[in-house]
Recover the amino acids of this structure.
């Protein structure tokens, strides 16, 4: 077999491995991560690994590296005495490890989206007050980027940049940025602003109503999450904290008895 044929076969195998590590939603995940999770160390590593190229391929490379690491860990454990069991577990370990990069980036995106949603009512109130005072929408959007959560501020900054680079309509830039980030409430707000501005209707009052609705929904979701985590905190206290405190108290009692010589035999 020629050197060129071997190289071509190696490239084909590499492409097959790359296709295995690619997912259909990676492009959208990478776009949302760029907007909503800029502060995450994992997202920074993802875009640093892309080096100006495709973050989708960087994510696929991370999946491949994690899968290889899972296989190597099982092989090392098998060589250290794990036997055939670790060899059998190498394939499930590779699959599980390969899902970790996507899960980590997805978790960072979900946290950023939740933070952005919690900061959206304040942003809407500032936009409403600014437009009621006579500021145009683009100035109002630029004003709130430093007053809200970083994840929402990144989306608003993207909207301002898109409007400046496009047809100059801030509402369209806001709609495009909201669609890219996956923030449904912000997309609804962009559609509301665009519709009322086209009709020449006031925008401030509807924005304040949407802000109240979003704030109530976020508060209800927070309370529901706290209610779910209450029993879990009690379980952790019963299983971990209480036994640890009892063990520490028993250790102190035994130390006091030994110091006083009460547990020592005669002699």
């Amino acid at each position: 077999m020629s050197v060129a044929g071997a190289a071509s076969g190696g490239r084909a195998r590499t492409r097959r491995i790359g296709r295995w590590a690619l997912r259909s939603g990676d492009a959208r995940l990478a776009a949302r991560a760029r907007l909503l999770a800029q502060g995450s160390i994992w997202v920074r590593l993802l875009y640093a690994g892309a080096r100006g190229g495709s973050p989708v391929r960087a994510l696929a490379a991370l999946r491949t590296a994690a899968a290889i690491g899972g296989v190597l860990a099982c092989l090392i454990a098998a060589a250290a005495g794990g036997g055939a069991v670790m060899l059998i577990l190498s394939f499930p370990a590779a699959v599980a490890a390969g899902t970790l990069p996507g899960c980590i980036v997805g978790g960072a995106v979900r946290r950023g989206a939740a933070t952005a949603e919690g900061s959206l009512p304040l942003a809407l109130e500032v936009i409403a007050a600014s437009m009621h005072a006579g500021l145009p929408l683009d100035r109002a959007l630029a004003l709130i980027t430093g007053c809200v959560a970083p994840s929402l501020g990144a989306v608003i900054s993207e909207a301002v940049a898109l409007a400046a680079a496009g047809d100059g309509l801030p509402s369209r830039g806001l709609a495009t940025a909201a669609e890219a980030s996956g923030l449904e409430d912000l997309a609804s707000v962009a559609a509301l602003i665009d519709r009322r501005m086209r009709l020449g209707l006031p925008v401030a009052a509807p924005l304040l109503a949407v802000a109240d609705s979003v704030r109530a929904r976020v508060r209800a979701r927070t309370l529901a999450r706290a209610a779910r985590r209450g029993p879990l905190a009690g379980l952790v206290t019963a299983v971990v904290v209480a036994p640890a405190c009892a063990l520490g108290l028993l250790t102190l009692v035994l130390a006091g008895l030994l110091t006083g010589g009460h547990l020592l035999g005669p002699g």
